Amino acid sequence: FILQLHSNSDKGDGSVKYILTGEGAGTIFIIDDTTGDIHSTKSLDREQKTHYVLHAQAIDRRTNKPLEPESEFIIKVQDINDNAPKFTDGPYIVTVPEMSEMGTSVLQVTATDADDPTYGNSARVVYSILQGQPYFSVDPKTGVIRTALHNMDREAREHYSVVIQAKDMAGQVGGLSGSTTVNITLTDVNDNPPRFPQKHYQLYVPESAQVGSAVGKIKANDADTGSNADMKYTIINGDGAGVFSISTDKETREGILSLKKPLNYEKKKSYTLNIEGANTHLDFRFSHLGPFKDVTMLKVIVGDVDEPPLFTMPSYVMEVYENAKIGTPVGTVTAHDPDAANSLVRYFIDHNTEEDRYFTIDASTGTIKTAKIFDREETPWYNITVAASEIDNPDLVSHVPVGVRILDMNDNPPELARDYDVVVCENSKPGQVIQTITATDKDNSANGARFHFSLDEGLSLNPNFTLRNNEDNTASILTRRRRYSRTTQDIYYLPVLISDGGVPPLSSSSTLTIRVCACERDGRVRTCHAEAFLSSAGLSTGALIAILLCIVILLAIVVLFITLRRSKKEPLIISEEDVRENVVTYDDEGGGEEDTEAFDITALRNPSAAEELKYRRDVRPEVKPLSRHHPSSSLDSIDVQEFLNQRLAEADLDPSVPPYDSLQTYAYEGHRSEAGSISSLDSATTHSDQDYNYLGDWGPEFKKLAELYGEIEPEGTT
């Protein structure tokens, strides 16, 4: 039962009917239409709906007319504590640094209650800790979790599980509650210094260990993790600080001990190292827990190993003269056994290369000797490898490189640097330099840098050319006379003697070929052949055959031309003007056969009207023309055909009529030449003192003549 509706019109006789409408009417709420009692048909949940709005009305049961206006009323659902608090975000995972101060805030948790917070204590929640004491605590009102102990150490315990409870009704008896779990992890800080497990270590290293190789490991323990446990190892002192080095492995945080210098058991049998391990990332809040480093002592024991022989030098350089006899000593290598046993050493050469076969070595003394005769100009340097092994243990072998330099001896004579093409101009003057020559020597500068040039003294004095030694390893070729002729001699040979400055001095003879050439005035070579002279000495057989062939062809052309002239016909007419000259030329189109006005046919019908026959004025006719004068009585009887036949016969028999050959005579010689006569009839057969230099000014047509009779000085020398 919720309530009862009553109308003032209701007399209790049942004539009034109550009607209920609105939210939940008929489903959640029902009404007794006679008494007006309202009941609920199901339980109400305030968290789903807090109130309902309903309308009630009283009507006349008989007439169904309202007795009163419709009235509205509200049914409010009163809250009861039927909802427990809930943690919507749980469970929680959180971290807090180790060694934090007591009361350090870790996390704030919040629980919600669906009950009405404005009515009673149904939604009033308080927090408490069910699990996690005495390490953590929670604020009852705010739900803030805090550390409850000083200096919580991660290395002692790292993970904690805390259970927090939220209870409504302000924590009173009968209140509802809910709980959640908070997983707390302590994070690491650098609060633990590194420590070596032992204060003394001992390490065995054989003396054969290679430089740069790792020979041992050492590690200092650190309870911290991550970067707080990073370590750096150093050798702070000890007699082995210069022999060993230490580095840190980033992954394992171990100290790697390496060898910096080779070990020698015979010189030092042990080393002492003081090794320090220190943290690289320090937290000054915990410096009072330090120092964050530790030191230990490491003793390195050097192990004795049978070593190969040791050469006194890392490499050798030796010298020997070229052309030395086979078996000549070159040098000696020395090796010894570095071990305490000091075994004897045997030497040998590994014949792995061709150069190794050119030398031999004494197995006992290590003396290297030649096995062939060397030529420095062929190979100036040899590289060989000498090996040494102990007689007691031949497997232990050491090697050393040996370089052999071949020293030079003066065994190569000098020679011309190249094949010279020497040219002398026909118009050269005495003392003119026509070529500068140099020499080369295969020997080095000590046996051939100074050259001396001269002509062969065993020959007679050369009348054409001479040689001048320039004292700078060059020589100049000079002319001895004036004027050379290709027709007389086009090639000269000049033997040259060259000697070097070595000990003993060597010399050689070379022959220079000098060609005679025609040159320009400036000294440039124009031609070195004799094709300009018609002498047998300058013409080859092929050239002569070509010239004869050309002459034969010219003669054949002349004979053919004469034959053609004789076969031509004699002239046909002797008249200066052709009888057809009276033909009138006009541009109008003719009238055909009926047009008789263009040409006067009377001349053909009347021979007397034709022009008189005219003869040539430059020759006399040999045949008299036929008489063309007939009695007038017979003119009219002459037929045109007969007239034409008569004229044709005259033309066939008269040799002077056209066409005839025309002869023109040129008898004018021209004016006198300004150059005068160039005839050699009055010239002397030998060279005269007359100056012919003016011939060079006449132009290129007289260049050859100027070279023959004049003295043209070339401007350059080839």
From TrEMBL:
CDD domains membership: Cadherin_repeat
Coiled coil ranges: none
Annotated SUPFAM superfamilies: Cadherin-like (SSF49313)
Pfam families found in the cross-reference section: CADH_Y-type_LIR, Cadherin
Domain Cadherin, residue spans: 7-87, 88-196, 197-311, 312-416, 416-533
Compartments, record wording: Cell membrane
BP GO terms, sorted: adherens junction organization; calcium-dependent cell-cell adhesion via plasma membrane cell adhesion molecules; cell migration; cell morphogenesis; cell-cell adhesion mediated by cadherin; cell-cell junction assembly; homophilic cell adhesion via plasma membrane adhesion molecules
Keywords associated with the record: Calcium, Cell adhesion, Cell membrane, Cleavage on pair of basic residues, Glycoprotein, Membrane, Metal-binding, Repeat, Signal, Transmembrane, Transmembrane helix
InterPro entries registered for this protein in UniProt: Cadherin (IPR039808), Cadherin-like_dom (IPR002126), Cadherin-like_sf (IPR015919), Cadherin_CS (IPR020894), Cadherin_Y-type_LIR (IPR000233), Catenin-bd_sf (IPR027397)
Membrane topology of the entry: Single-pass type I membrane protein
Gene Ontology molecular function: any one: beta-catenin binding
A GO CC annotation given for this chain: catenin complex
Membrane-traversing stretches: 543-564
Main function: Cadherins are calcium-dependent cell adhesion proteins.
Protein name per Swiss-Prot or TrEMBL: CAD18 protein
